[in-house]
């Protein structure tokens, strides 16, 4: 996990971007890679690669990494989980110099001379490389787990970076946008899609449910993400998704002789997530840590958090605040890698508003759309709120093999189903792990109702944040804000407050357009809180009747 910054000059560009300036812009994301830094300028093209490294695999090596000769260089942010297999098979003819997973990328390029190399990579990545013949290639992983942006300046030079803050003042007046997931960029060709599985088309998602395949593929996805030369921890909210990942990982980590630390965050010891996580940690046998934060703690870091997140989306900011504070605690323990449960709600329609889907077809379309935009929401939140403290987040639910199984399943099998007297979301994945012999989780956790992460840490956090924002914005300012922010106009005082913070850091129109707001579907309001769903309200009412 690191920070990358790259500059690509078209063949007719004579005004080369200065290396010293590139290194200065790259340093804005030093939090992503505090261990060491490196850079390279291609002697013929002037193309630049800058790297801020967080050492996780082969702790001694420094990027950029060289291929067979000096003019082949690569910088990479992410993890390539099948790098050992690639070394032993496709790259057996080459002599690689390190054990760093990133190194296989530049040698695959030398082998294939094409962005097709991306299809051979099992992992997550944002990378850029240069070659001896002057080629330049940049790419992003299939779903966009790794954050990446691109832009062009006024004379047509291309810029690439993990974080928008490195290039917004260069490219903001011209072209600036998220690098599209599942694509590579090649000099002279532009953007090319390399990832297009069958499940992109909802009409082809007709497979019968396969509980064994779901269980096996998620288990394999979790185990492969334990690859690390640095300490690993588990983010455990007590919800279904993080609990499943933590339980699978804890079993494997004990086999590997590793210490198993889990972490939960909430406003106090009685927060919904804290209570549930405590039960799970006791059941799976982790060394569990609880971190509490106050409303004042959260409010104190909101402005800094907006700078890190590079978004004004209310949902992302609400949920990132506890994650940011928790990451600070984890990093001080010396842990550099954590596993988390992002992606499951999008894959299985786990958000409570999915109960209101009007048809199987619309349910499936919405799950596909949510997965394809995870790079603007949960992946963005997890990556940037943790990387603010130099912690890499790994997300097994977004493994390509697991996605093929889960997303291809016909929607009628993924919709909420009756269990225990109520309709339960994510029924299919719960059922896949509901086994009598040696269960991973207590049944009360396995079948627990969904809480939005920002709700689960304690409802007082959201209520206090909304009250604080309301006190900073007048009714008149909210009514008039469409003239100031015509794009993605804020719909609430909280949204306007966040938009102002964002605009102060990133004033360009292109920066504003790079943000996608998370808005629930099929409900009468835009409030992202799970409590805004009638499903949640009815569930609480039933509990009170008992």
Automatic annotation (TrEMBL):
Pathway the protein acts in: Amino-acid biosynthesis; L-asparagine biosynthesis; L-asparagine from L-aspartate (L-Gln route): step 1/1
Site (Important for beta-aspartyl-AMP intermediate formation): 342
Domain spans labelled Glutamine amidotransferase type-2: 2-190
GO BP of this protein: asparagine biosynthetic process
Residues given in the record as L-glutamine binding sites: 101
Entry keywords, A to Z: Amino-acid biosynthesis, Asparagine biosynthesis, ATP-binding, Glutamine amidotransferase, Ligase, Nucleotide-binding
GO cellular component: cytosol
Protein name, UniProt field: Asparagine synthetase [glutamine-hydrolyzing]
């Amino acid at each position: 996990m690191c920070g990358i910054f790259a500059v690509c000059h078209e063949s007719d560009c004579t005004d080369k971007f200065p290396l010293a300036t590139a290194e200065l812009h790259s340093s804005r994301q030093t939090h992503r890679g505090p261990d060491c830094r490196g850079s390279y300028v291609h002697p013929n093209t002037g193309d630049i690669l800058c790297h801020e490294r967080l050492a996780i695999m082969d702790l001694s090596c420094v990027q950029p990494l060289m291929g067979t000769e000096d003019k082949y260089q690569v910088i990479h942010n992410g993890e390539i989980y099948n790098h050992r297999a690639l070394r032993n098979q496709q790259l057996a003819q080459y002599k690689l110099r390190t054990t760093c997973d990133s190194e296989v990328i530049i040698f695959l390029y030398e082998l294939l001379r094409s962005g097709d190399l991306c299809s051979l990579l099992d992992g997550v990545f944002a990378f850029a490389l240069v070659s001896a013949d002057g080629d330049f290639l940049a790419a992003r992983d299939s779903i966009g787990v790794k954050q990446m942006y691109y832009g062009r300046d006024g004379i047509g030079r291309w810029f690439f970076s993990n974080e928008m803050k490195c290039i917004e003042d260069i490219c903001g007046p011209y072209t600036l946008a998220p690098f599209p997931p599942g694509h590579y960029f090649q000099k002279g060709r532009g953007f090319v899609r390399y990832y297009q599985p069958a499940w992109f088309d909802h009409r082809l998602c007709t497979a019968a449910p396969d509980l064994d395949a779901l269980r096996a593929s998620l288990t394999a996805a979790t185990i492969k993400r334990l690859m690390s030369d640095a300490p690993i921890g588990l983010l455990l909210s007590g919800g279904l998704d993080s609990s499943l990942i933590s339980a699978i990982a804890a079993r494997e980590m004990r086999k590997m002789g590793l210490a198993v630390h889990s972490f939960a965050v909430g406003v106090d010891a009685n927060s919904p997530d804290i209570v549930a996580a405590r039960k799970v940690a006791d059941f799976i046998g982790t060394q569990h840590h609880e971190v509490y934060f106050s409303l004042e703690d959260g409010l104190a870091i909101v402005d800094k958090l907006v700078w890190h997140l590079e978004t004004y989306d209310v949902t992302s900011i609400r949920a990132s605040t506890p994650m940011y504070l928790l990451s600070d605690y984890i990093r001080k323990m010396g842990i550099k890698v954590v596993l988390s449960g992002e992606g499951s709600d999008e894959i299985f329609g786990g958000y409570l508003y999915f109960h209101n889907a009007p048809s199987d077809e619309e349910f499936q379309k919405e799950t596909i759309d949510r997965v394809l935009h995870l790079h603007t929401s949960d992946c963005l939140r997890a990556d940037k709120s943790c990387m603010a403290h130099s912690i890499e987040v790994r997300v097994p639910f977004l493994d390509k093999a697991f996605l093929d199984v889960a997303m291809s399943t016909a929607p009628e099998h993924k919709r909420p189903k009756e269990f225990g007297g109520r309709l339960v979301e994510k029924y299919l994945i719960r059922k896949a792990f509901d086994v009598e012999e040696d269960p991973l989780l207590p049944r009360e956790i396995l079948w627990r109702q969904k809480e939005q992460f920002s709700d689960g840490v304690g409802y007082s956090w959201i209520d206090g944040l909304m009250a604080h924002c309301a006190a900073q914005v007048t009714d008149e300012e909210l009514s008039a804000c469409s003239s100031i922010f015509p794009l993605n106009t804020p719909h609430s005082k909280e949204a306007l407050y966040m938009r102002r913070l964002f605009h102060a850091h990133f004033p360009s129109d292109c920066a504003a357009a790079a943000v996608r707001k998370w808005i629930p579907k099929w409900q009468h309001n835009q409030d992202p809180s799970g409590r805004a769903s009638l499903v949640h309200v009815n569930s609480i009412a039933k509990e009170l009747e008992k």
